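TEACHING EXERCISE
Course module: macromolecular assemblies
Task: Read the component lines below, then compare them to the predicted structure of the full complex.
Student: A.B.
Group: 4
Components provided:
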Amino acid sequence: MQRHLITSAIPYINGIKHLGNLVGSQLPADLYARYQRARGNEVLFLCATDEHGTPAELAAAKAGKPVAEYCAEMHTIQAEIAKGFRLSFDHFGRSSSPQNHALTQHFAGRLADAGLIREVSEKQVYSNADGRFLPDRYIEGTCPNCGYEKARGDQCENCTKQLDPTDLIEPRSAVSGSTDLEVRETKHLYLRQSELKDDLDAWIDSKTDWPILTTSIAKKWLHDGDGLQDRGITRDLDWGIPVRRGDDDWPGMEGKVFYVWFDAPIEYIACASEWADAQGGADWERWWRTDKGADDVRYTQFMGKDNVPFHTLSFPATILGSGEPWKLVDHLKSFNYLNYDGGQFSTSQGRGVFMDQALELLPPDYWRWWLLANCPETSDSEFTWELFQQGVNKDLADVLGNFVSRVTKFCRSKFGEAVPAGGTYGAQEHALIAELDTRIARYADLMDAMEVRKSAQELRAIWVAGNEYLQAAAPWATIKEDADTAAMQIRLGLNLIALYGALSEPFIPDAAAQLQTSLNLGDPQWPENASEALAVLKPGHAFVVPDNLFAKISDEDRADWQERFAGVRS
RNA sequence: GGCGCGGUAGCUCAGCUGGUUAGAGCGCUCGACUCAUAAUCGAGAGGUCGGGAGUUCAAGUCUCCCCCACGCCA
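Instructor-supplied answer key:
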C-alpha cells in the first residue's frame, strides 16, 4: 500500500473563490485524493484557509467586524462551499490556528539558529490616523508621471509606472483617507534565501519528472537578474502570528507579526497537526517527518502557476534552512488559468462565476466533470457557457446518464427489477472485456500520472464502450428469439453500470453514490480486471431504476446564465 | 521594452527523443436502430499544422527571422 500526502494551495480568506481558483488546485487535488483512496492507498488530503495579512484586516474592517471574527466566519463559509463541491479534505484547517502559530515560531527560531535570518532597518509609511504602518499599495495619491489621482504607492494603474510611496503627490491612506502620514524607521527580519540558492538549485535539478511549467518558473526566479533575493518575513501588523524565536521572545520584534507568505505554507504542516488533534491525537508526524515514519510518503502539491515560486523556493527554503528532516514535496502539479468568456476570471473585479453561485445553478458533479475534463493543464483554457452546456449534455446526460437509463428501464420492463439469469458470453462480450481491460489500465496510468484531461477522455471512452456494445448486442431484438441471451446481455449491461460507478467516483462522486444505491451495492470496489468486475451483480440481485442521473442544460437556461453572469459581481 | 507560454480541422484540444496517407471529442451531412433523457451506433465531408528562410534522405516535430494572442516583469 502506498501512502500519499496531498495538499491543495490554500485559498485566501478574503471572499469566495471563483471556478478558476477551484479548477487550479482544490478540484484536481480532490480527484487525485479520491483516486488514490479508491486504489486502496492511505491518503492524507489537506487544505486550509490562508488568513493573515493586510487584505484580511481591511476586508474585516469593511465588514465592520473584528478580524478574528471575520476570518472565523469566512472559514466556515469556505468550508461549507468546499463540502458543496464534495472536496474530500481529511482536514480543512486555518493558518491562524494555534498549531500554526507554534510551528511558524519554531521554524523562525531554527532559521535564526542556523544564521539564516538577518535584521534590516527600513523606512515605511505610518498613518497616525489609522495607527498603523501602511503597505505600499494601501497608500493613494496623485501620480507624478501622469497626474492620475488614484495611483497606488507601488504602481500607477493608469500609466503603469512603478512608484515609491514617497513619489506620490498628496499621499493619503487608502484605509481611512487620512493625509496624516509620516515615514518611520522600522526593523524587520529577512530570510537569507540567497544563502540557500545552491541547495535549492540542486534540489530543483533533481526533479526531472516535474512539468516544464514548474521548473522553468523556479529556474527563472533562481537565476534571473541578481538571483534569488532575501525576503522580509515580518510586518508591522496586529493580525498575524507574533514574531517569536521558537518559544522565546525576540528582542526588538515586539508588536510585529510574521509576513503571511512565511506562515501560510507552514500551515501545510500545521494542518496535519490540526487534523491529528481533531482525530483525538493521531500521529501526524508520520506524514511529515522522514525520521518519524514519513520515509515512504509521496507528497504531491497542487496549485495554480502563480503559486509555483512559493512552493518551489520559499517553502523549501524554510524547510531546508531548518536543518530538520521535514518532508519536501515529491511531485508538484501546477495549472494554468481558466479564462471566462474571452477574459480572465477576476476576484477583485467580480468577473466570472463564483463557487457559491455555481452550486446554486447546478449540482457539483456537473461542474466537477466539465472543469476537470477541460482543466488548463498545458495552457490556459476557456470557459464559455456554450462549451459547458455541450460538454455536460453530451458526456454526462447522453453518454453516461442515458446508458444507465436504457439498461435499467429495459430490464425492468422485460425482466423486472432484479438481475436476470441465463445465457453465456459470446464473441462480442469477450471483445468488450478485452477492450475494457486495456482501457481501465490506461485510465489508471493516466490518473496515477495526474493527466487530468486525458483521464477524463479515457473514462468517457469507457462509458462509450457500453453504448457501442449495447447497440451491437441489441437485446431489444435478441429477446424476441432468445430470452436467455438477452438476459445475459442485460446482466452485462447492469454490471457495466456498477463498473462505471466505481471508475467514475473520483470525478462525479454523487452520481457514483446514486448508482451504488440503485444497484444495492456497498462501497465501490476498484476493478482488478474487467471479467471479475462484470460478475459482481449475480442473477437475482435486486435493484431499483434510478432517476435520470443528469438533466440536460436547456438553451433557455444557458442563455439566462450567460446574461446573468455577463457583468461583474457586486 | 524584456521574459514566459501558445498559434494544428468551424469549436475545444492530443500529437515523446524529427520518419508510412496529421488525430480525438463536439458541431455538420448521410445512413442504421428504436431499449433509452428526440438519446444511441456507424459512415463521411472538413486542415498546404501562424508566415518566411534554413538544417536533413525526411519537419507539425530542430535552427533563425517575422506576425498574432495571452500572461508575468521592468
